[in-house]
Specification:
With about 140 residues, this protein is α/β, with parallel strands linked by helices. It contains four helices and seven strands. Bound molecules: adenosine-5'-diphosphate and magnesium ion.
Length: about 140
């Protein structure tokens, strides 16, 4: 799907539509510049999953945040992992092969490795800033998976 949102609230609402397409075990990679709306979208996904959206912030330093729920939402951020670095860490391996819904900000930086590690469906959400409050968001299932 390709959608243009005109506010952060609209991007959160888009996430609740996307929630309907996701099953436990699925992984959603989010790409786009800083400020493009990846964390805002994740907040909307949390809300749609009955998780308090206020607890959602970019796990830039922690790498991984786990928000309990049924299913749980696991929020990962590869921003600080250096190019060519190793994304293998045990919590991520568990997350990718468990029954949570997993969102990975900057996941495109290690897409080939994710394609090997993910056993469920892999989706990619591309965010582009096209105006002060306008974001063009393309979400599709990964065709190379
Ligand atoms: N249409 C929109 N969708 C998402 N965020 C928007 C939109 N318009 C303005 N914003 C603002 O842009 C910023 C997006 O930040 P954030 O979600 O943290 O981005 P990222 O995680 O991609 O770095 C927020 O301050 C948000 O309020
Ligand atoms: Mg972010």
């Amino acid at each position: 799907m390709i959608v243009e949102t005109g506010s952060a609230v609209e991007t959160e609402q888009l996430a609740s539509q996307v929630r309907e397409k996701l099953s436990p075990g699925d992984v959603l990679v989010l790409t786009g510049d800083l400020g493009a709306g990846k964390t805002t979208f994740t907040r909307g996904l949390a809300r749609a999953m009955g998780i308090d959206p206020n607890v959602v912030s970019s796990p830039t330093f922690t790498l991984i945040n786990i928000y309990p729920g049924t299913p749980a939402l696991i929020h990962v951020d590869f921003y600080r992992i250096p190019d060519g670095g190793d994304i293998f860490f045990e919590e991520l391996d568990d997350a990718l092969n468990g029954d949570a819904i997993v969102v990975i900000e900057w996941g495109d930086r290690f897409l080939d490795q994710l394609r090997e590690m993910v056993q469920g469906k892999l989706f990619i959400g591309r965010f582009r800033v096209t105006g002060e409050e306008i974001r063009e968001i393309v979400i599709e299932e990964d065709s190379h998976h």
